[in-house]
Hints:
- The chain has a domain at 156-282: 3-Layer(aba) Sandwich (Rossmann fold).
- Helices cover 49% and strands 16% of the residues.
- The chain has helices at 2-40, 61-76, 90-102, 119-127, 155-170, 186-202, 216-229, 244-254, 267-275, 286-301, and strands at residues 50-55, 80-85, 107-110, 132-135, 149-153, 175-180, 205-211, 235-238, 260-261, 281-282, 309-312, 316-317.
- Helix 2 (61-76) packs parallel to helix 10, helix 3 (90-102) packs parallel to helix 4 (119-127) and helix 7 packs parallel to helix 8.
- The radius of gyration is 29 Å and the shape is elongated.
Amino acid sequence: MPARSASASHLRQEYQFKMGVKEMKRLLSAFIGAAVLAATMLPASAKDITVGFAAANSGWPWYATFIKRIDSKAAEKGWKTLVLSANGDVPTQLSQIYDLVSKKVDYIVVGPIDGSAVIPGLKAAKTAGIPVVVIGNPVDKSGDEFVAASRLPDDADLGRGSAELAVQAVGKGGTLVIVDGLPGQPAVTIRHAAMDKVWAANDIKILGVQPANWDSTLAATVTEDLLTRFPDVKGVLSLDGAMTPGVLRSVEDAGFAGPVIGLGGTATEIQAIRAGKLYGTTCMSAGFNADAAVQAVSDLVDGKTVKKLEMVASPKITRENVDTCPGDW
């Protein structure tokens, strides 16, 4: 009997061990399954996302601020960013968009230098299943089918607003010279189209228009030249805040007493308005545009319905409401 009892005890222990191992395997399998299920049910924004950004030029102040803001907002969401700068060169930007496609980023944000030249790259992204969000400048209508969302400054509103401020400053029938942006860029074309209507309605004479390609140093030279050629002009308009510092320097050096009008609401412009050196500007916040772009990507990540086109607000700014523009670039 004692021997039989010992054998029975041994069998019971072996059975319990096997059942314990089996139960552990069952629990482990259940845990792994639950973990996999939980991972698949995570919000898409919590997964490993890489956003590629094809910037027109990281050296342009508006883009420099935009990049800092989008990097910061992406980091908050746990996304990675891959920023490429075309340094204002059209073929380079197209090549960089192709590069982002080949790297298989999840989303691409593009700030087009040329709204038509980027279209083959956007088509390649669409073919690869990579949604594209356009910022800064619009894409030509022929490429609209390749764009998931556009979040743009309202260049027509910006141009119209600054032109209306110029009319207030010089009066109907007055004269102006314009320090222009980069010829052919959509922002330049759209702003001028809106301005021309204001000039015509108020009998404003534009004595000279000369490009400074968004560059403050060149803008100083251009302004000096325009004031030399047209010494009796009533006012000066800078087509973009990136050029306004150079415009203001040359205006001061020339002893020009007429009003200067800006566009963009840069930190320099906001300070100049407060100091009484700039009559007014229109507010084009790079941070506001970056926030709108990140929100569009986030909605795409989460599978939400995304509005195709949204314009970022660009109000007129004078000393009376100068505190409403952040001056973030």
